[in-house]
Amino acid sequence: MFEAVNNPCLMPFNGEFSLSEASTLARNVPDRKSYKKRLENLVDELDDQRKNWKFSSGDVDESALWGDYMNAYEQALNATSRPWAPWYAIPADDKPSMRLQVAETIVESLKGLNLQYPPVSKKQLEDIVNMRKLLEKPL
């Protein structure tokens, strides 16, 4: 059984377990761009005046730490991915492809729930037959 921890970094992990206990499906899909795409975005922020507000010179300095960030990212996913709330690391450089992969992940997760319509009682079936008869009568 899962035991909640008091580490603030793992609070979402605790919440995801609570959601799964309440029969809520949780899937984590972070927006992961490659280093190349990140650099392209930074150049775009410089070149496009409408995006200048996004640019921070600190982003260039932070780019030098990309390898460290990716190692931490991988460790975080491995440490927090659980059967009831797995992480799916989907490349985000190509948005249409990323969206398709996210949709496929959702569809496969829903299929795994084995959802079915609720059973209909004998009384409900009788009501359906009677309502059908009423609806078929001319006005």
List the helices and strands and how they pair.
Blueprint: H1 11-21, E1 31-32, H2 35-47, H3 57-63, H4 66-80, E2 90-91, H5 95-111, H6 122-136
Parallel strand pairs: 1-2
Structure report:
By secondary structure, the protein is mainly alpha-helical. It has a single domain (8-136), classed as P-loop containing nucleotide triphosphate hydrolases (Rossmann fold, 3-Layer(aba) Sandwich). The protein is 56% helix and 3% strand. The chain is built from six helices and two strands. It has a two-stranded parallel ribbon with strand order 1-2.
Task: Summarize, please.
With 139 residues, the protein is mainly α. The chain has helices spanning 11-21, 35-47, 57-63, 66-80, 95-111, 122-136; strands at residues 31-32, 90-91. Helices cover 56% and strands 3% of the residues.
List keywords for this structure.
139 residues; mainly alpha; Rossmann fold; two-stranded parallel sheet; 2 strands
Number of domains: 1
CATH class term: Alpha Beta
Strand order of the largest sheet: 1-2
Q: Round the Cα radius of gyration to an integer and report it.
A: 24 Å
**Overall pLDDT:** 83
Structure annotation, total helices: 6
In the CATH scheme, what's the topology name? Rossmann fold
End-to-end CA span: 61 Å
Describe the biggest sheet? 2 strands, parallel
